[in-house]
Each structure stands twice: as C-alpha cells, then as structure tokens.
Amino acid sequence: MKVSGAKRKALPQDLPARTKRDEQRDATRQALKAAARKLFLNGEYFTTNVQSIAVEAGVTRATYYLHFPTKQAILWELLREEIQRQRGMYLRLAALSEPSIADVRDWLSHFARATQRSRRMISFSQMAVGLHPELINVFSEARDELLDILSNAYPTLRRSETRGARVNPKRIEGHLLIMQIDEVCLNLALGVWPLDRQASIDFLAARVAAFLASLDQ
After folding, report:
1. Which of 52, 116, 137, 207 would give a disulfide with 189, using CB separation of 3.0 to 4.6 Å?
2. Residue 143 shares a structural domain with residue 50
C-alpha cells in the first residue's frame, strides 16, 4: 500500500556532486592532521601550537580555525581515527564463527602487526591521557563500542536496557580483556618486554578464546 507523503530514500545519484572546493577542503584538513601528527609524535606536543601546525601544513592560522577550533580538537580527531582502526579489528573478530584458539591467534597476530604500525600514535595517546584526564572517558566509551560490536555475535555481552540494573559482569570482563590485549600488543610492538612474542600471543589467544566460549554457555 502506498503511504501518502512518504519520502523517497535518497540515491547516490541524488547527492550533490563534489566540487573542487570540497576536494580542496578535504585535502587541507588531511594536511593539517598530518602536520599535527608529525609534530606531536616528534615529542613536540607541549611546544606545538595552532600556528606551528598551520606552518607545517603550509596554510594560514585563519585556515586552521576553519577546520579545528583548538589544538585539542585536532588531537581528538587523531585519536578517533586510531579508535576507528580498532573498530575494524573487532568487526573481524565478531565475524569469526565459533573461533578456535588458532582462529583467535591469527586475529591477535594481525592485531599485533597493526599495533606495530601504529605504535607511536598509540604511545602518544597514552601520554595524552595524562595531559587530558577527560580522555579516560573517551577510551572507556570506545571499549564499550567494541563490546557492542562483539555483542552482535554474542548477545550475552549486550548492555542492560533497564535503568539502575547491575552492570553486566561479562562486559566488565570484556573491558579488562580489551585493555590487556592493547597492553600486550603495544609492549610487544615497543619491544620493552623481554618476552617471547609468539608465547605471549599464544597465552593471550587462549584467554580470548576461553572468554568468547564462555559467552555461549
């Protein structure tokens, strides 16, 4: 039955075409983020200001403010991009059907390689938490989002929708396990632990596989 007044869903061809100005705006934003990342990761976060980021990106201070209101705002965006990388990894984990220890080991090996590539940004994000304590909530919410991804495959992990209900103990366990995965993979990437890489991944894979198996019980 036709519904009166219903709006047709927009199709790709209905969307306005991107202009050269749109492309230039995106390119400038990417240049600013690349400049900030370079300066921050070179250990210059304290001395870096909006002007120095703009100069590094080859734009004016006024142009910077068209994209980001503060230095902290561009830091937030860089951290969100790192969080987005993790989302992709946990989507892969959620897609595994009844994962064995070997399956989880392969996933962790891939996670560790991704951490190796991003190790400087991840280390910097930990330092940033010390400077901006409010980031603790950002990362806690990010872990909640990762658990939400897993809850699509493991309903036991779903959040309680009842106000005042006790926090799901499996979600607490999941938070702690995600933190352990991050810590182990980062320390392996930085080479600060005198531990065998494969033995560490094997140990962690057994814990993750056991946790996922417990969600089906």
Report:
1. 116
2. no
CA-wise closest residue to 153 among 201, 198, 103, 196 = 103
pLDDT band at 13 (very low <50, low <70, confident <90, very high): low
CATH code, domain carrying 47: 1.10.10
pLDDT tens digits, residue range 46-93? 889 999 999 999 999 999 999 999 998 998 898 888 888 889 999 999
Size of the chain in residues: 217
Rounded Cα gap, residues 45 and 136, in angstroms: 19
What the block records as the tokens of 161 is 């929708």
CA distances to 14, 138, 149, 166 from 110, rounded to whole Å, are 39, 24, 18, 35
H-helix segments, 40-117: 50-57, 61-67, 71-95, 101-117
**Tally of domains in the chain:** 2
Domain hosting residue 24, numbered range:
19-69
DSSP state, residue 16: P
Predicted TM-score (pTM) of this structure: 0.77
Q: Among 48, 69, 90, which residue terminates a domain?
A: 69
